[in-house]
Amino acid sequence: MRRAVGLVLLLVVVVAAVVLLLRPARPVLSPQPTPEIPQRNAAVPGKPPIPAPLAAGASTTVAASPTLTIAAFNRRLRCVDVHQYYRRLASTDVLALLCQRKPEAALAIEVPLAEAGDLHAMTVLGLIANSGGCNDLAPPSAGFRAFATERARKNGASAETVRRLDGRLAEEEQGPTPEELAACRQATDELKRLLPEFKNQVTDLLGHALDPAKGDDVDSEIEYRRKTLMAGDTADAEELARALLNKGTAESDAEAVSLLREAARTSASAKAQLATCLLHGCPTPADDPGEAVQLLTAAASEGNLQALLTLTGEQPGNEVPLPAADRYAWGQMLRKLNDEGCFGASFFYVLLAGSPTASQNLRAMSPADAAAAQARADELLGAQLTPTRARLGCD
Description:
Elements: H1 70-86, H2 92-99, H3 103-115, H4 119-128, H5 144-154, H6 159-173, H7 178-206, H8 218-228, H9 234-247, H10 250-263, H11 268-280, H12 290-301, H13 305-312, H14 324-339, H15 345-353, H16 367-392
């Protein structure tokens, strides 16, 4: 049996939301939505609002490679998403089936595992069930496709990137397949059936029952993660560190930083988490941001989205001191990777919808600074783009 996943403990405390309990928390990896950026299911007026024109001299995004068909690019986006959310939970056979949009075949593998008490499989069922919101698997609202492609164009996306976005949204307009809807409902039913035994497993592991009246029980989560942590498993160590940081005491912060330092030896996401601690305080910020910048640069070189967003200034309030040329270069890396679908469908539109930050506007720089920024971007893309794409599985 695969080891019990550490992402499910907090979910147990809200028994009424049966499927939500089983869905692993997804980290916030994108800039926060703003009122000017409509979401896929938001009502879009008949005449979509036109965003402000691209600022004079805003960067010309490196054109996306035109070699992929729309169908192949959509498959890439889907498979990147599958890899991101399921890779620690399911076998390569299940990952391949989900990439092929064959969730019923994936359930045929996962349901028996869940019946045998595999909590990884329970989490897979929760994801396929869309947290029980099968009716939410709806196509985008009318007018969204036209609005989104126009906004991306105004924000400086290349013609090839706009074509890919249009193709992605055209597929979304078709809505879920009959098999995806059927699998969602089946997974929801299976979870309801298996929930009592699942709760017993967690109780047995902790040695006590959870009290739903407590809501988010951070101490029980920490206890659960400690008991399911395997030596050398950096992903589990990072989850334990997050739980300790959520507790927010000086002792828990110190333990979290220790865990992150060890995990950061081999994990890009741990590097990014540790850098955030050093910058903003766990419990106090580091006197010198140099180590944080080094950690973020190393993580970004491996394609870590959180690190890239921080280095480029895409997340207000989470900036780091960085030379303008480096910030511009990392911004070009972020956009090029996104143009190639390296962060999956969930993030593809979000970045295209956001207006370029000032750091990506060459004409806002002096001629000498602009030349230095462009040279640094060319250098970074030449050295890092191909290996980073290979690492992310979007080459």
